[in-house]
Amino acid sequence: MRRSPWLPWIKKWGVSLASLGSGLLTLFVFRRGLPNVAWIVGYLLLLWLLFAVFTQLRAPLEARGRRLVLEAADYTIQTLYHNLLLFVLPSYYASATLTSVNVWFLLAAAGGALLTAIDPWYRALIHPRRWLDQALLAFSMFAALNVALPLVGVRPFWAIEGSAVLCALALVPALRRSGGSWIGAWLRAGIFAGVAMLLLVPLRAWIPPAPLHLARAALARDVSGLEPLDPLKSPVSAGDVRASGGLVAHTAIYAPAGLREPIAHVWKKEGRAVTTVPLTPVRGGRAEGFRTYSRKADFGPSPAGRWEVDVVTAHGQLIGRLSFVVTN
């Protein structure tokens, strides 16, 4: 290393940058694809198994001076965090709406994937703080389960609640290590699960309904055969709105096969909801997305303004948004 000053830099940053590069390549190639549920379950089981085993064995191994074993286990767990978050990140990228609050969950998942890719950052921030490592475990498992459960037909709302319960139960080994009793650890995990379920009810709008996403959206004068006729581009004049007798919002929602989810179109003007139109429940499995539409005829005496049509699930999660402007 004295002869080659660049070797210490490669040792510190090389693997991290290579991991980050491969991750970005994965996002570019598979940015809108749906992950295979078997891969997610495999990652989750392996991650939890290593976490549970080494949570119980860490103290004995440290007492025996087996630092190399612990370092290898920590690095493997870090790699699993990174791979798991990268694996589901394209689904959240497709499902999140960048102009809504659910983009923060996408940013959190991307931040977790970046943090676990850069070894020096992870070693400085996460490794010395076991509680933060446990929080990262819970978040990674929640993000993965929230994608995996709808892939087997679980509706998005119940996927959120079920993911919260499973993540709380996954922390039992860590809770047992601090409390000493398995019964006490299970009780604390049950309390955490109940609290998480209650907290996530009002926060569900902050979580993208992955893997559901808006495959296509169009503003049109009419619809024929579930396809938009005479699509319009923003801005639209108020005269065109009146001449057409209103406007049609046509959307195609992609959902995995076997999933059935009620949805609605919420027409908004300047951010304020003016009309909510319940629609036929989405049935998953169509590659081009489940097609549906709503028509708004009454735009009031002053239709000019900024309009949005939010596509939402029955429990208020935002699938996507169609925005347009009506001018005088």
Mind sketching the topology for me?
Elements (H helix, E strand, L loop, with lengths): L5 H24 L7 H27 L3 H29 L7 H15 L1 H7 L4 H22 L4 H15 L1 H8 L2 H22 L9 E12 L2 E6 L3 E2 H6 L3 E8 L5 E10 L2 E12 L6 E7 L8 E9 L4 E10 L1
Parallel strand pairs: 3-9
Antiparallel strand pairs: 1-2, 1-4, 4-7, 5-6, 5-8, 8-9
Q: What do you see in this structure?
A:
- With 328 residues, the chain is α+β, with helices and mostly antiparallel strands.
- It folds into 2 domains: 6-206, no CATH class; 213-327, Sandwich (Immunoglobulin-like).
- 53% of the residues lie in helices and 23% in strands.
- The strands form 2 sheets. Strands 3-9-8-5-6 form a 5-stranded mixed β-sheet. Strands 2-1-4-7 form a 4-stranded antiparallel β-sheet.
- A hairpin with a 4-residue loop joins strand 8 and strand 9 (318-327).
- The radius of gyration is 24 Å and the shape is elongated.
**Widest β-sheet, arrangement of strands:** 3-9-8-5-6
Compute the separation of the termini in Å: 71 Å
Order of helices and strands: HHHHHHHHHEEEHEEEEEE
Count the domains. Answer: 2
Q: In which range does the helix fraction lie? A: 40-55%
Biggest sheet layout: 5 strands, mixed
Tally of extended strands? 9
Task: Determine the structural class based on helices, strands and strand pairing.
Answer: alpha+beta
Binned strand content? 15-25%
Number of DSSP helices? 10
Mean pLDDT: 85
Output the radius of gyration.
24 Å
Low-pLDDT parts are none
Overall geometric form? elongated
